[in-house]
Structures are given as C-alpha cells and as structure tokens.
Design brief:
Number of domains: 1
Distance between the termini: 45 Å
Strand content: 15-25%
Oligomer: single chain
Number of strands: 13
CATH superfamily: Glycosidases
Helix content: 40-55%
Order of helices and strands: EEHHEHHEHHEHHEHEEHEHEEEHEHHH
Number of helices: 15
CATH architecture: Alpha-Beta Barrel
Shape: globular
Bound molecules: beta-D-fucopyranose
C-alpha cells in the first residue's frame, strides 16, 4: 500500500489572546510635521493627513477586526523648540490614544521612530551625547500624560536601520559617511533605551512591558561550503541582529521584531558580497526586497528566548495586491510554524495599515492594507486587508487560504463572495 497522504483541513490555530494589528509611524502618516529634520531633507508634506483623519483610520482597523495597533508620537511636534513643549500637541496625542482605547485596541506606542526635531538635529542628532538627555526630558514630560492609554512601550524603532541609512548609505538626514558617527549613535541610542526603560519602570510600577522594534535580517551563505561566506553571515548576524540587544541586555520585557530582509552572501575573490537578486529568479517586492517567508521562521527561532516576541512590523510594498494576499498567508504560516516549534510569539503587526511616506523613496511604495489616494485622501480597503481579517477572525489561517500559496489567481475575483460577507460584518 502506498503511504497514506496526510490531509490537514483544520485552521492553523494561533494561541488565544494573540494580538493582530498593523503599524504606522507619525512622520510617515500624519502630515505637516514642519519642525522635523526630514522637512529640510525630503518632506512628507501632507502625507496621509492622519493627524486629522485618525478616527477614520482607527475605525477602519477596528472594522477589519484588528485588536491591536502600533503607532508613534512625533517629538518635533511636541517639543518644536528646546524645552518648549506644546500642550495642545500633547493633548492631541492623548485624544488619539484615548480614541484607540475606546475601540478596545491594545496600544503599542513608539517613542522615537527615526525623525528628530530640527533643533536636536542641528545640535548633532544622536551623535551628540546630550541627545540622550534631550530625549529623556521629552519622554519624562510626555509619558505621564499618555501612560494611561498605552499597553506596550517601544522606546526606539530600528536603531540599526537608522545608523545604516544615515552613516553607511548616506540616504537619510545628516548625509555623511562616518564610522565614528555610527559608533557614537549606536552607543547613545543604547544608553537612551536603557535610561527610558529604567524611568518607565520606576515611574509606572504597574509595569507595562517595554522593548524596542528591531530590524532583524535573515542571512545565508550562497555556497554552503564557503568558510568566507559563512564568516560574512556570522559577522553580519552579530552586528545587525544581536549587537544592540547585547548593549542593552536585561532591559527588554519583550522582543519587537521587524522582519523584511533575506540576504545571501557570495564570494568575489576574497571579499564576500551580497548576491544581486536581479540576476536570480527570486520573487521580490516592488522595492526589490526578496520574498522569503522562511527567513521569518529562522529569525524567530534564532532569537527565541524566555521573553515574549511580537512581530512589530512585517509587510510588502506591492501594487499587485494578490501578492500581498500570498505574502500574508505565507509569512503567517511561518509564524505558525515558529509557535509550533516552541517560540513564544504573541502578536503580529502588518506594515502598514495605510499606504504612506516611505522615507527617501517617497510615496511610490505601496505597503498599505488600505490604499490612500494622496490627492483626495480617500481610503480604499484592499482585498488583502480582508484576507488578513479572515485570518484574524479564525485566529489562525484557515486551510482554504493555504491553497492560494504559489498561485497567481486574482484573489479579488476568487475570494470575492467571502470578502463581501466579511465587509457586511457576517
Ligand atoms: C521599516 C521602518 C518603517 C517602514 C518599513 C517599510 O524599516 O521601520 O518605518 O519604513 O521599514
């Protein structure tokens, strides 16, 4: 008799209380952040005008069944000049967070997501040791007013990406290649995180969990036998994925993981180089970032520790929404696999709730579950948002969705009936 094929028609169930949401950051969505350093560099202009439209956006997230939301506050709005805090802007954030809580959302609040007030940037930004103190003063002023409405604190977003884009690739404000700048910024960001961690725990003993959102990459050598390539993998893994955790050891109540990248190294002579994906057959997003769901499993198992893990960002830039459908299913399947392997993953935040300003790349990359028309500020729910809703409603991946993996069928057509039902709230 041939071996029996294994059929599993059940939903791939996630743990009860799993958090499902999407993430944004203030500068990328709010609009008119005139006192931020990015304004003089590449302005987001009106962006998605979420400053005024937040109720609409949060309601959409709620309609889509999200039970959690990650967002950030804009330092430059609250403290446009050194030591001068704007109470109206603080009040604005209080209202926003209150509104989210009224929708019964679990709130993850990021305190710093890449942008600086112009005055801080002029004084040297994160290279300047005094910025630790400036940031601490800002946090101490604002947090007591917001704390009631926050469930999880994220002190910093992706220190590694900030340093890479600023000091190595020279794509972001400051625009300079500087090894010293890298070192100083790394150490200052690490100190800032540690101080804020201590402050938050001391001042709010009820203890909302505190962490960072760290960009974690999956590295691989192209030739398995190549010691050089493997050395490149180890070194990069250490520097990009582990160094910041090492510098801030003992000050993470959870790991916030942002996953986007899979990097393969190959050797040219003696120098390991990143494989150029365009010469390969791999599937890539509109930004050329490889679609590699297995990498998420790899980073999750690699970082697995005693503390809970939240995937604080994971998403795809694509104008072809069918690819986002498959992306969501495939990546979440890897999260499921990791949980089954014993990794303590407690939540997933898709990047992003709405299309937004993708830093130096502007508005072309479309990451949103919700499409934004930047002329009218109209929002349009993409079908993939409903695939995500389907998953959330099942608190897992229904087996019927798995069949879309590897297909190029237009989910909008195939899944239409089901999604209409979801929209009608059945
Ligand atoms: C991450 C950033 C986020 C967004 C996504 C695409 O590195 O945290 O702001 O730009 O990439």
């Amino acid at each position: 008799m041939p071996p029996q094929e294994k059929h599993d028609h059940d939903t791939l169930k996630f743990p009860p209380d799993f958090l499902w949401g999407a993430a944004t950051s203030a500068y990328q969505v709010e609009g008119n952040n005139l006192n931020a350093d990015w304004e003089d560099f590449k302005s987001a202009g009106k962006a998605c005008d979420e400053y005024h439209l937040y109720e609409k956006d949060f309601c959409l997230a709620k309609q889509l069944n999200h039970n959690a939301h990650r967002l950030s506050i804009e330092w430059s709005r609250i403290e446009p000049e050194q030591g001068k805090f704007d109470p109206e802007e603080i009040e604005h954030y209080v209202k926003m967070l209150k509104y989210l809580k009224s929708l019964k959302m679990t709130v993850f609040l990021t305190l710093w997501h890449f942008t600086l007030p112009k005055w801080v940037a002029k004084l040297g930004g994160w290279e300047n040791r005094a910025t630790i103190k400036y940031f601490e003063e800002f946090v101490k002023r604002v947090v007591p007013e917001l704390a009631e409405y926050v469930d999880f604190w994220i002190t910093l977003n992706e220190p590694g990406v900030y340093i890479y884009e600023t000091y190595i690739r020279k794509e972001w404000p400051q625009l300079k290649k500087s090894f010293l700048g890298q070192i100083k910024t790394t150490l200052n960001l690490a100190s800032a995180h540690k101080r804020i961690y201590k402050f938050l725990h001391q001042s709010f003993p009820a203890g909302k969990p505190i962490g960072i959102a760290n960009n974690v990459l999956s590295f691989e050598s192209y030739h398995k036998h190549s010691i050089l390539e493997q050395a490149a993998v180890s070194l990069n893994d250490l520097a990009a994925n582990h160094l910041f955790y090492f510098l801030t050891k003992g000050t993470h109540d959870f790991l916030g993981i942002n996953y986007y990248f899979h990097v393969r190294f190959t050797t040219h002579g003696l120098v390991p180089k990143q494989v150029n994906l365009l010469q390969q057959t791999h599937d890539v997003s509109d930004l050329g970032w490889e679609i590699y769901p297995e990498g998420l499993f790899e980073v999750l198992t690699d970082l697995s520790d005693d503390i809970p893990i939240y995937i604080t960002e994971c998403g795809i830039a694509s104008t072809n929404d069918d690819r986002r459908n498959r992306f969501l299913i495939a990546y979440l399947q890897e999260v499921f696999r990791a949980i089954r392997a014993g990794v303590n993953v407690r939540g997933f935040f898709y990047w992003s709730l709405i299309d937004n300003f993708e830093w130096h790349r502007g508005f072309d990359p479309r990451f949103g579950l919700i499409e934004v028309d930047y002329t009218t500020q109209e929002r349009k729910i993409r079908p993939s948002a409903l695939v995500y809703t389907d998953i959330i409603q099942h608190n897992g991946i229904p087996h019927s969705l798995l069949r879309f993996l590897g297909h190029t069928v237009d989910a909008e057509e195939v899944l239409e009936k089901r999604y209409k039902e979801i929209i009608k709230g059945k």
